[in-house]
Amino acid sequence: MFCKKWMAAAALGTLLLTGHAMAEDKKVIAVSIPAADHGWTAGVVYHAQTAAKEINAAFPGVEVIVKTSPSAADQVSAIEDLSASRKIDALVILPYSSEELTEPVKAIKEKGTFITVVDRGLTDPTIQGLYVAGDNIAVGRNTAKYMIDKLGGRGDLVVLRGIPTVIDDERIKGFQDAIAGTGLKVLDIQYAHWNSDEAFKLMQDYLAKYPHIDAVWANDDDMLLGVLEAVKQSGRTDIKLALGGNGMKDIVKKVIDGDTMTPVETPYPPSMIKTAIYMTMANLVGQAPVRGAVKLDAPLITKDNAKEYFFPDSPF
Q: Which residues pair with 281 in a beta bridge?
């Protein structure tokens, strides 16, 4: 009896020691992303948490930790605290802002951490081992090409920008390069900070200032919602098109339903964070290393293919 108890205790001790060793040997992937301050970032949080849940359940040798931050300063503190408290094998980061996060991320890399950057790049791209983003120039270009075709190459436009970032600059460049040399004229272009309420107010200003507008481009779907509400309240009938970008489910549903003012959309899926997390994990679990840049295409979402892009359970 004593022998059996001793053996059982020894076996339990061995299991505890083994479990402790396995916990110590786990590969840790830290995921640092902005808090859900608008629709697209809400989608990022949703997909990051989904990836963490899936990986933590399926891969006992990997632990994914997701941290959200409401500002650049908070994000710096979050990744510094994580790095100081435990060994991080990989960091997947969607920087709140490029400049403020570059040096802190570089310091973490110098500890031997693999760095994956998503969407908003750092000012020093040599820090990253992997970069995953959408094609922002294509978002602008493909939207412009559709407008050119639909308006017969002529028309007066107003444009709403997001925030002063490389992403916004690229979207505007793609759009402006595509309409160059056509009869499409931009009457006004101002920032609405990817915010529906700001876009609503800016569109009201546009409507008051310009008696005739053929089309509107809000380069993000949160802003497009504000634009559409302003147009609806105005009762104006001259506006033929109001287009956005990013693939928000509410806008994709309009495309599915054959909405005449918003008949197409361009994707910029927040699920790219999930792709980045899985690709990062491949670098840690003995699979072939994944390095370099991955750029997602931005094909037009039309009524013919919109159901492929419609995810009603997503927050975005």
A: none
